[in-house]
Amino acid sequence: MTAYAEQVLDALGDPTRRAVLKRLRGRARSVTDIAAGLEVSRPAVSQHLKILKAARLVTDRAEGTRRVYALDTRGLEAVRRWLDGFWDETLAAFKEAAEREAAKERKT
User: Is 34:19 a contact under the CB 8 Å cutoff?
Assistant: First the structure.
């Protein structure tokens, strides 16, 4: 696994960070909007956003005096590529097993 994929998975390992990402699914939001209804403080949400941004799961931009956060697909794409590797290995193993079975049947 690449260090980057590990960083993304580590970031996604926290339930608060996953909740933050869910809130950003539909649209970009300010920290205040994201924090509303969460069981953590606004400063704590800011810290979670910092980790998500480092993992390239969110981006931010300035809008006046506030920061607006949105989903960044680069982190999710890194995890998807990593998971796709498992799928490729699984398909290769299945193909090998099917070929072995076919060879056994041809011998019988």
Answer: no
Q: Which residues lie below 8 Å from residue 7, measured CB to CB, with a gap of 6+?
A: 54, 55
d(CA 54, CA 74): 11
pTM: 0.76
- Residue 38 CB partners (closer than 8 Å, separation 6+): 16, 19, 20, 45
Q: State the Cα–Cα distance between residues 58 and 67, nearest whole angstrom.
A: 12
Spatial CB neighbours of 49, under 8 Å, sequence gap ≥ 6: 20, 31, 34, 58, 60, 69
Q: List the structure tokens of 20.
A: 């933050």
- Is residue 70 within 8 A of residue 30, CB to CB? The reply is no
Is 3-76 assigned to CATH 1.10.10.10? yes
**Tens digits of residue pLDDT in 27-70:** 999 999 999 989 999 999 999 999 999 999 999 999 999 999 99
Q: What are the domain boundaries of the chain?
A: 3-76
